[in-house]
Design goal:
With 191 residues, this protein is an alpha+beta fold. 43% of the residues lie in helices and 26% in strands. The protein is built from 6 helices and 8 strands; from the N terminus they run ααβββαβαααββββ. The protein has helices at 8-30, 36-50, 97-100, 111-117, 125-144, 151-164, and strands at 59-72, 75-88, 91-93, 105-108, 168-171, 174-177, 182-185, 188-190. Strands 3-2-1-4 form a 4-stranded antiparallel β-sheet. It has a 4-stranded antiparallel β-sheet with strand order 5-6-7-8. A hairpin with a 2-residue loop joins β5 (168-171) and β6 (174-177). The longest helix is centred in the N-terminal third of the chain and has 23 residues, at 8-30. The chain is globular and about 45 Å long.
């Protein structure tokens, strides 16, 4: 993270990376796919509350076109996927194992740049409509500080994170982030 912010950024970075790692473990174990809006929404709310005493405008949730290489019939092929990520300043945080586990990937958050780099997709109306739809979901998430689309996965993923993180523990039916003594309620931190 940028040096222009205070020294707690290292702590926030550690908490965010640990939470993202545990989210990815859960998603891989459970075979969670197609839940990038849910995953980004949860981590976005979590991060916004960690940074709530700082410049929260630097935290954004963004739709992107993820372009990555994957195996298909024993060959590497290029795949496209409308996806949701989080930006803190210019740092990309992708909380979804489904895409972020690929080594070779590019995230486009601008349709014009995407089309200029991959012109053969210029007339892909479905991709454009999906991208615009994800943009509306991103606006709703930022306006309401979250969006629960699949309550079962949402709750199970939170429980997995709490159970498996050395940074969290239960106290009086609340969850405490050990390093900051903050309480988490439904994945959102409050003091």
């Amino acid at each position: 993270m940028s040096e222009k912010y205070n020294s707690t950024d290292k702590l926030f970075s550690k908490i965010i990376n640990n939470t993202k790692r545990l989210m990815n473990e859960y998603q891989k174990k459970k075979g969670v796919k197609g839940e990038c809006i849910q995953n980004a929404s949860y981590l976005y709310g979590f991060i916004k509350n960690l940074f709530k005493n700082e410049n929260i405008e630097r935290i954004k949730i963004k739709p992107v076109i993820a372009v990555y290489k994957r195996e298909y019939n024993d060959e590497k092929v290029v795949a496209l996927h409308i996806h949701m990520i989080i930006l803190i300043d210019d740092m990309v945080i992708d909380p979804s194992y489904e895409i972020n586990h690929y080594k070779e990937k590019t995230y486009y958050d601008n349709w014009s740049v995407f089309i200029s780099d991959i012109p053969e997709q210029k007339n892909n109306k479905k991709l454009l409509m999906d991208y615009l739809s994800f943009g509306k979901n991103a606006e709703r998430i930022m306006k309401y500080n979250g969006l629960i689309l699949n309550e079962k996965i949402y709750r199970e993923q939170i429980e997995y994170i709490i159970k498996n993180s050395p940074m969290f523990y239960y106290e009086d039916d609340s969850v405490v982030v050990m390093d900051k003594n903050l309480f988490i309620v439904d994945g959102l931190i409050t003091e």
